[in-house]
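Q: Here's a chain of 194 amino acids. Please give me its 3D structure as tokens.
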Amino acid sequence: MAQKRAIFGGLRVLLGVSGGVAAYKAVDLASKLTASGTFVKTVMSENACRFVGPKSFEAVTCSVVFTSLWNSSEEYKVGHLSLVDWADIVVVAPATANIIGKAANGICDDLLSTVLCVCWDKPTLLAPAMNDSMWHNPAVQRNVAAVRDMGFELIGPETGRLACGAEGIGRMSEPQDILGAIREIASKIKHKKR
């Protein structure tokens, strides 16, 4: 546990949550990150809020959740810029076909997609989650290749039972596995700072 705290202690993770059924797993991920000594700020898409409420993330991270480009704040800051500047690592879990497509093509029509447009030079991890037919779609695969070329890392998707009831590839990786991937990225960051 001490080694885990050494890697995560003080780490700042900006957690993006897009609108997929796997959004419920992101609450567990946020909780695990917070318990490990990580500071977590959460950005949710409008569709993510249809699956899980922002209050769930606020409860486990003890931090306000950001859901809109148009939220007012007490002091003037350009929200998407200040959030990315604050973060050591950006993580999107789940990363739907929609948000991957937006990131790959520079589409900025909500807070989460705008954050992804700004964070292209920051360590970024995507945890894809979608139906296997969507995952295999040539356009989605082209977008996945594009975000990888931009330097984004991906974990998953995994094979298993999907939300539609079918078996196939498309399940979001489990929070513990995503935590392991974040640990690896954090180790690289700490090594570079030495």
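Q: Can you summarize the key feature?
A: Residues 127 and 155 are 5 Å apart (CA to CA).
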